[in-house]
Amino acid sequence: MTDTHDTPDAPEADGRMSHRAIRSFVLRQGRMSDAQTRFLEAKMPVVGIAYRNARIELAEVFGRQAAQVVEIGFGMGDATAKIAQALPDTDFVGIEVHGPGVGNLCKLIDTDNIPNLRIIQHDAVEVLQAMIAPDSLDGVHVFFPDPWPKKRHHKRRLIQPEFVALLASRLKPGGYIHCATDWEEYAVQMLEVLSAEPSLVNTANDYAPRPDYRPLTKFEQRGLRLGHGVWDLVFRRR
Questions:
Q1: 4: helix, strand or coil
Q2: pTM for the model
Q3: Nearest to 57 by CA among 136, 171, 172, 162
Q4: Domain ranges, ordered by start, for the chain
Q5: Beta-strand relationship, 137-143 and 171-181
Q6: Binding-site residue positions for substrate
Q7: Fewer CB atoms < 10 Å away: N or C end of the chain?
Q8: Cβ-based neighbour number of residue 135 at 10 Å
Q9: Residue 212 catalytic?
């Protein structure tokens, strides 16, 4: 789950957003289990990519040429792991700041032997600005970001025009952004913001059918049984 903090400001003179203007999270560090701590300490040196203020070549990281997809805010990583397993010909990078989720995904990568998945434990805005080259990604996933339901907190939502412009700039032509939310009012805002980005085009008339690669989470399945909606949005770069 992703999150934002502070009010977005105007981009800097070089076109980058100031990291003070928007973040992809609010740090609410939960208690880590012994297993999460153990796997984070043992496996992050293997499956983690350390943040640095320099471009990275994901083909070198994974040791092959393949489609490259970034997921922002993977929560506990269960869906991320399933997607990577279902799409072995695609390389995935999950970005998350919360230790328990990072530790859990390290465990899943190790126990399920998932070679096409890496982790960056850092703010996604800074990672995208510094480490990911423009026109390089085949896809970006943003699943169930924090809806910040109170109106006075809407400015903290992740899907804002400045952030969407940054995401779009990192996509190859034809690359996609896939967002999902179970909060209808946020889905409406997402649709408006994504539709307003001139470099993106909607793949559906409004909301898209859930792609087969996105698994239903236990939380989502329970919500659907209770009659709650889930909205997927899939936009492609022109």
A1: coil
A2: 0.86
A3: 136
A4: 68-237
A5: parallel
A6: 150, 182, 217-220
A7: C
A8: 11
A9: no
